[in-house]
Amino acid sequence: MSNILVVDDDTSILSFIEKALEDEHQITTVSSVADAENASKNNKFDMLIADLVIPEKNGIDMIMEFKKSQPNLHILAISGGGGITGRFDYLPIAELVGAEKTLKKPFTISDLRNSVNTILAG
Amino acid sequence: MPSKGTIPSQFLDEIFDNSIICILTDDFIITNANHKFCSTFKYTEEELIGKSWLELQHKEQIPPNKNTDNKHKDTWQGELQLCQKDGTPTWFETSIRLSKQTQPYHYIVTCVEIEQRKRLIDNLKQRAHQQSLIAILSQLSLNNIPINDLLEQSLSVVCGSLNIPTGIIFKLTNSSSKAIVSNAYNANSCTPQETVLDILQDDILGYSINSHKPIHIDSFETENRFSIPAELINEKASNASFVLIGDKQSPFGILCLMSDKAFKLNVDEISFLKTLCNILAEAINRQTIENALRVERELSKKYLDTAEVIILVLDKNENIVLANQYAAYVLGSSQDELTGVNFIDNFIPEQKQDSLRKKFLKLITHIQEKNHSIYRKGRTTSIINKKGETRIIKWKTSPLINEHGEITSVLSAGEDITDILAYEEEQKKLEKQLNQAQKMEAVGMLAGGIAHDFNNILASILGFTELSMETLNQPESKLHGYLTQVHESGIKARDIIAQLQNINLQDDSNTNPTLLPSLLKSTLKMLRSALPSSIEMRINIDQDTPAVLINAAKFNQLIMHILINARNALQGKGEINISLTTESFDSQTCTTCDQSISTIHAVLIIEDNGPGIDNKTLNDALHPNPNAVKRSGLFVASNIVHDAEGHIIVESSSIDNQIIEHGTRIKLLFKIAATESSKPIFEKQSLDFSAIANKHVMVIDDENSVASFLGELFKNTGFTASVFGDPTEALSAFIKEPDTYDLIVTDQTMPLLTGDVLASKILEIRPQKPIILCTGHSDIIDLEKAHELNIQGFLKKPIDTAELLHQVISLLTKTQKH
Q: How distant is the Cα of A97 from the closest Cα of chain B, in angstroms?
C-alpha cells in the first residue's frame, strides 16, 4: 500500500483514478496545484500522478517543484496531449523533467495499474 | 588736208610727242628718250641717257634678254612692269623693236601705260577667285563635313588666297571669356586645342567681339587702342586683322590673320573675309541645330523603342505602317517583318476579327467633329502573336489626319497587361490561400483544444465503463455485453481524436512512424469536399499496410497537391482511383531523382483518367527553374516524399501508353518504418533522448535569478549548463570553444551587448548553432526579425518552461539530424 497524490482539474478523472487504485493504494485527490502543495505539507507521499494541463499553472513546473523538494518522489504524468493550443505534446517534456512514466488520456484501467505498479516496483 | 597715203609731218610730231618712246643700243643702254618717256618715269633726259634699260624694269620681271629673245627675232612685245625714278612700278604694254637702219643696230622701245587696266583685270581675277573659293567652301559646309575640317580648309584657303603667312581661328567659350585656338596655319607658338587665351574687354579679342567689325592693327608695337595678348606677339608678327565668326549675340570665334610684313586688306578682301566668316558661322549654326535635331530624333526613337508601350500605325487597309521595337517584341516578330502586314488578319483571333474590323472602319471613315487628336480610351483586346502566345493588350487609339483634314491612318498605343492580369490573379489566389491557411490554423488550434478536452471526457467514459465491468464481474451477462459496446465505441472515439491531434501537431521536424490507412481515410474524407461530385473517387486501402516514416501534416499536404493536380487534369469530370498497398520493387526508377528502387515500400497510387501529362510538362514540373517563384504541386509533392526518404514514379498515357492507357498514374513510395518502432503515434510517448543526451547549453541572462533558474532547469533535466550573467564573457567563452556549446539560450535586453547582436556574432562563427532568444514584451525584436537574423528559437518572457524545453528538444533533434 503506497501513498499516492493525484492532481487533475477534471474531477471525474480524479474519481476514476481513485476508484481504479483505491483497493491497492492510499489515494488523495486534489484539483489544484495549491491544494497539492498543501496536501504534501501534511502527508508524505510515495507517488504523484499529475495532469499536465491545469488552469493555474502548467504541470511541468509543478513536477519540477515537487522533484526539487522531494527528489525521491515517484511521478506519473497524464495528459490529453496536445496542450490547450495544440502546439506540442507535453508528455515527453514531463519525462524530461522527471516523470518516470507518462500516460496519454484516455487510458485503460490496466494501463494505469500497470504503470503505477511498475514505477513503485522500480 | 594731207593727201591720201602720206601723214603730214605735224601729225607725226604729235604722235611722237604723245607716245612713250626711247632708243636703246644693242646692249640695252638708253641713247634717246622722248619728253613723254622722261615725264612718265620722272627722270630728266640727261639722267636717262646712258642708263641701262634693265634698271627700269621691276626686279622680279623677266627681262627681254637680247641673247635669248632677240637674236632671232626683230620684235619683242609684252607686258612689263617698269619703275619710276622713286621706284613706283607701273605696268606698260611694251614693244621693243630692232632697227637695222643704223649700224650697230638699235632698239626702239615704245610703251603704253596699262596700269589701270592691269589692276582692274587683276582685281576681277582675284574677285572671281575669291567667289569661286566661297562657292567651294559653301558647298563644303553644306556637305556636313566636320566643322573642324571646314575651319581648317577655310583658314588655309584664306591665307593662301590673300597671301598672308599666318592665320589662327579662335573658338570662344560660351561666356566669351576665353578663346581657345581651334585651328592654326603656320603659327609658331599657338597650338590648336591647347593654347587658351583670356579675353579682356580692352584687348583686341574683346573688342573684335563687341564691335563686330573687322579690325586691322598696323603695328603691334605702336598700337595704343587695344592691348594685344602675349601669345599673338609671340607669333613674331607685326600686324594683324581680326574678323568675328558669328554674330554679336552668339559669337562662335575669331579669325586672325597675321604677318611680319605690312599688309592692308582692300574692300574686296574684307568683304571676302566677311562672307567667308558668315559661311562658317552659318555652317556651325546649322550643324549645331542638326546635331540637336539628331539627338532629339534619336532620343525620340529611343523613347519609342524603350518604352514598354506598343506603338503601331495602321493605314486605312489595316496594314502596319510603323511598329516600334516593343511592338515587334510583343507581336513576336521583327520591325521589318511587320511593315505592310495586315494587323487584323495576322494578330487578332479569328472570332474577334469581324467586330474589330467594324470598329476600325468606323474609326477611320467617320470624320469626328471634334477631339480628333484625343486618344480614345482603353479598349482591351487579346492578340495572338507570331509565337502563338495570347497576349492581352489595352489600346488607346487616335486617328492621324493629313493637311487636308482626312484621316490617313490610325495610331494605336497599347499596353501589354497579360502579366499584370496574371499577377493580379496570382495575388488573389495567394490571398485566398493565406486566408485559407489562417482559417486552417485557427481550426487546428480549436481542434487541438477540443481534442485535449475530449480526451479528458473519454478518459472518464472509458475508465468508468471499465470500472463498471470490473465491479459487475459477470463477463457473460448482458450488461457486460452492453458495457463492452460502450467501451469499444469509446476506443473508436479515442482513435479519431488521435488522428485529429496527429494532423494538428504541426511540428514538421517530427517524423514518427505513421499508420497510413487511418490517416489516408480521414484525409480523403476531408478532401472529398474539394472535388466536384462529377469526379468519381474510388478508394482501395490495404489495412495491413505497415507504418511509414512521414509527418502527418506533410502527408496531408502531399495528398492535397496530387489530388488538386488530378482534379485540374480531369476538368470537372472523370475518375480518380486511390489505392494504398505494399509493393516490392525490382529496379524501377524514381521519376525525380532517377535513383533505382528495389525494396519493399508502402505505395500510395493516385490515378486519373484525364489526358495525361507529356514529358516536357512533367520535366518542367519536377525540375523547375530555381529562380521561379511558382512551384508546381508535383514538385512540392516530390520534395515531401523525398524528405521522407521515399520516391515518386509518374506514369502517363502521353509518355508511354504501353504502361497506362489513359491519364496519369502517380505512385508515391514511402519507406517502411523499422518494426520495433512501428507503433502508431498515439501509443508512442517516450522521447528520443539520444538527441539531448550530454548536451551543453549556454545560458545568458543579466538577471541572476533568471539565469540560475534556467541553469538549474537544464541541469535537472540532464543537460550540462554554463550560466553567464555577462554577455561579453559568454561571447569570449564561445569564441574560445565554439564547439563545446550545443545550444544557446539568451536574454535580449542586457547592458553591454543585446541578445540579437550576441546571436549574430555567434552565428558568424557557427552559422547553424541553435539559439533561443528570450524577449520581454517591450523589446523591439519579434519572431520575424529573429528569423531574419537566422535565430532559430524565439520565446516571449515570462518563460514557459514547457515551451522552452520543447524548443530545446526540437532544435537539438533537428541539429542531430543534420
A: 5
